[in-house]
C-alpha cells in the first residue's frame, strides 16, 4: 500500500482533494509523504498555494527528459513533498505515442523513472487525470493500489464500472500486484433521494464484485475550497479543524483497519 493512485475517469469526484487531504493526514502523523501530480491541470500544486508556471522542472522532465525525480521534488509542508505537474504534461501522450521505437514499453515509463522514490517516502499518493489515458496506464503500472473517489450523481455507477473494468484488464496485462484499495463516497448528501439510491446501488455492486466500499464518506461542503483559498493548504492541514478534515482522518483510520484485516 506504499504507492496509492487516486483515480476515477469522471471529473469532479474529488481526486485531488482526496489525495492531498489523505497526504495531509499522514504528514500530520509524522509519516514522510510524497504526492505525484500526474494531471496537467496542476491541482495538487495549486492546493498548496503554489504557481505551477514557476517551476522550471516537473514530472514531464522526469518521465521524458530523464531528470532525476528527486531534482523535481518540492517541499510544501512539514513531512510533505510534491512532484509537480505543469502544462508540459499535455504533450506526454503525443511524445510517447509518436516515438514508438524509443518508448518500447510505454506503460512502464513512470515505473522506470520514479521507482527510486519508493525508498525515500513512507507513502506516495498519485493524483491522476480524469481519463483512461497513457498517463493513467503509467500510474497503474507503478502503483500498488487504487483508491476510487465516487460522487453519487447520475451516471456515476457507469463510470465506476468502467474504471474497475479497466483496472482489471490492466492488472492482468501489466501489473499483477495492482489491487483496488476501495471506493469512497465523495460530495455525499444523504438528504437527497438520488444520493441515497445511488449509494445503495453502489454498495450492492461493490459487495457483489468483492470491492470494499468504505463506511466513511466525504460530505458535500464548500470548506475544501475555503481552506485552499485562505490557508493555502488542504483541510487536514488547516489550523481550524472542520468536519471535512475529520472525515479524511476517519477514512484513513478505516483504510488502515481494512488493510490489517486482510
From TrEMBL:
Residues covered by the AAA domain: 1-179
UniProt cross-references to InterPro entries, sorted A to Z: AAA_dom, DNA_Partitioning_ATPase, P-loop_NTPase
Pfam families found in the cross-reference section: AAA_31
CDD domains documented for this protein: ParAB_family (cd02042)
SUPFAM superfamilies per the UniProt record, alphabetical: P-loop containing nucleoside triphosphate hydrolases
Catalytic activity entry: ATP + H2O = ADP + phosphate + H(+)
Family of this protein: Belongs to the ParA family.
Subunit composition and interactions: Dimerizes in the presence of ATP but not ADP; ATP-binding is required for double-stranded (ds)DNA-binding. Interacts with DnaA.
Protein name: Sporulation initiation inhibitor protein Soj
Species for this entry: Domibacillus aminovorans
